[in-house]
Amino acid sequence: MSWIKIVEVDRVPQGAGLRVDVADDRVALFRIGSDVYAIGDLCSHAEASLSEGELFGTEVECPRHGSAFDVTTGAVLSLPATKPVPVYDVKVEDGFVFLRLEVS
Amino acid sequence: MSALDTTVLDTLTESQPPWRAAQMKAALTAFESQATPTGAEEEWRYVDLGIDAADLIPATQAGEKLPPGPFLTEALAQSSGRVTIIDGVVTEVALDDDAIAVRRTADLDELAPAAAVGKDKFAAAHLAFSPDGVRVEIPARYVMTRPLVIDVQATQEGVATFPHVEVAVAAEADAGVVVVYRSPDGSEMLAVPGITLEADDGGRLRFVSVQGWGDQTIGLVHQRLRLGRDATGRLGEVGLGSRIGRLDLDVQLEGAGSSAEVVGLYFGEGHQTLDYRMVITHIGRNTSSDVFLKGAVEDHAQSIFTGLLRIEKDAIRSSAFETNRNLVLSEDAKAHSVPNLEILCDDVVCGHGSSVGPLEEEHLYYLQSRGLSRARAERMLIRGFFTEVIDRLPVPVVGKPVQEAVFRRFVEAQETGRLR
Question: Could you tell me the pLDDT band of residue A103, with boundaries at 50, 70 and 90?
């Protein structure tokens, strides 16, 4: 596991999501205030893109069927999804977002 | 100072070629001879302008440029060039595509008005006071891969502006154009754009307008589309901003085999009036048209849809459809929907449909039975309602910011408890 430089933090919209593809992982980045969070982009229910969902506080609502996830933990907060999505270690340094994940 | 003060017209005509100066003077006479609509006229029913057009102060020069908003930024990300019109004056023409020609009014021999001066007082005002404008020409058989973006701004408080845009698609050419209308919130102003669109034989035009005027702007758009033989015109009309936002659309299917599609969406909040009037005239045989508009109103907003499908007597084997669906989300909001057919030919296929109502209780119940909260269920239905039309916008790049803007409006209404 190593830190991978992903994107300028300014490219992550405030209060909305940005999808980034890192190797085989599809990650949704969210910026809330000065914090950036990263969870799996694919909804665990029907594989819609969570980065296109709406943010309510730290909760993202899937645009397709309304499942909700906590962007800080990946935990599922509303049906129809029943399983969490992955959560990634994320840090912001020198104006860039870094993710820690396994790359083969 | 007012429009009737001839010094304004003198200032405006000074820099114009003689043909245009003469046209402006003639249009001023037509302007003066007509009354400001009061809302009593059938054409202006439900619309309370609250202004007297005789008090207009026409803009004579461009004000300060506005910062780019989300619609413009997304549209420009994949464009073939940009035209900026500020207060009716063309301030920028920057093209990345050499095949397209953009000429300004002063370099033309005539102006193609979007509406005749006798149409209403504002059509006459447009022709009398429009200081400048562009004619975009796409040469025969040329296919544009990215759309041209036209940024139409009104910036000066208390002033009337008359932006003029013509798009001429030559035979067999394929063109995409996006117009974004905007003005600052909180400033009272009037904007009367005139948009003239033409596609010659076999030409194809994809055109989207995003009406994002500020919340105290009255925006009255006259727009005309004329189609030649086998030509295709696809229009997308998005209505979000303004205090009163009106689109007066005149589609002429002149050439045999021509086809027109008008898709649109609007979302009214506060005390907005969003007014869509369209007349689709089938003149040539084998012509087809499809109008599909969806809207929502909340708070004290009202929307009006009046669509007339007119089939002339020689337009045999034509087909024409129009659909208008409205969601009324608050107790005090209103949606008026008036689809009309006028068929003078007996060998045609026509259909129309319209609906006005709240979100379906049954759909909400179903979603809640699957574990969604009511608020979440409402958001899913709103998303689904508008996605159907956003997906059909003929220039897809504006889809995302439009989707976001509409959704944000709904969430705001939900969070402030304005929904019934």
Answer: low
Residue in chain B lying closest to A17 (CA): B404
CB–CB of A78 and B377 under 8 A? Answer: no
CATH architecture of A2-101: 3-layer Sandwich (2.102)
Q: Where are the domains of chain B?
A: 6-415
What is the 3-class SS of B209-224, one letter each residue?
Answer: EEEECCCCEEEEEEEE
Instruction: Note the ipTM here.
Output: 0.84
CB atoms within 10 A of CB B1: 8
Rounded to two decimals, what is the model's pTM?
0.92
CA B420 – CA B410 distance, rounded (Å):
13
B371 touches chain A (CB under 8 A): yes
pLDDT value of position B101: 96
Strand partners, A65: none
- Predicted confidence band of residue B1 (pLDDT cuts 50, 70, 90): very low
- Count of Cβ atoms closer than 10 Å to residue B188 Cβ: 16
Give the containing element (helix H, strand E) for A26: strand A25-32
Under DSSP, is residue B21 helix (H, G, I), strand (E, B) or coil?
A: helix
Q: How far is CA B91 from the centre of its chain?
A: 22
Contact A48, A40 (CB under 8 A): no
CB B406 within 8 A of CB B386: yes
- Report pLDDT digits (tens) over B232-268: 999 999 999 999 999 999 999 999 999 999 999 999 9
CB contact under 8 A, B379 and A66: yes
- Of A54, A65, A78, nearest to B373 by CB-CB distance is A78
